[in-house]
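User: Assemble these into one structure.

Assistant: Restating your components, then the assembled model:
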Amino acid sequence: MDTVAGTERTKGHLDALLLALLASGPQHGYGVIAELRDRSEGELDLPEGTVYPALHRLERAGLLESTWAPGTTRRRRVYSLTAAGWTALSAERHEWARFSTAVGSVLSGVASA
Amino acid sequence: MDTVAGTERTKGHLDALLLALLASGPQHGYGVIAELRDRSEGELDLPEGTVYPALHRLERAGLLESTWAPGTTRRRRVYSLTAAGWTALSAERHEWARFSTAVGSVLSGVASA
DNA sequence: CTCTTTACCTCGATCACCTAGGTATAGTGG
DNA sequence: CCACTATACCTAGGTGATCGAGGTAAAGAG
């Protein structure tokens, strides 16, 4: 079957995913993709063309910072959260909570009126 | 504050929301918007420019059918699920479950490797 | 008789995301 | 030693979902 991304959309939650993943520690682009796949049990398999530009954008926005990995054989740009990134992550988590609760209650057919 | 939609972010789950809402019974466009708002406690406040075209699209796709409400004073196009619509809803529910589980486990920082 | 609410509709812009393409290095099997 | 695969990075441009803005009309409220 189709994993969510690849054929489908990450649906506006890309930033949250990237920030959350980098909350466990610095990671480079290719590694981010792999870990996202692992943690979601294959469900989230984002293309490079999605992830790299997003990392650049988050860095420009001041939520991430990066350095070329020192002492590594292969060239790797390693990203980590800035203070602003942690704040943003917190906001994203709350938003996800609100959003998923809202969608969940509609999908499960809860009438509130 | 910002509700999720309006600033956007319903991204990709629109069909699921509309089908799920109509699963509780036939409803017209304006009513769909209002009920979505109620059931999500104001969180999902979708603009008409989003909902009406989506209903038309779902009808063209054979997932919904509509009639002009008989005996109503005001003109209302009432939508209800077709058999295909119920099937699609079931699929959408599963997909939401998989997607939200995946995002949830990334956001909560679960390492599976 | 005006204002607000209900109720419908569509065009066009925006922007997030993906596809497709490209570079280069390190390890592996023959 | 040479091809192949995996790692690792990157971007230009297309596409399509969603929304903003605008428009019509009838009904109830004041």
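Residues 9, 28-31, 48-49, 52-53, 56, 74-77 of chain A lie near DNA strand D (CB under 10 Å from a C1').
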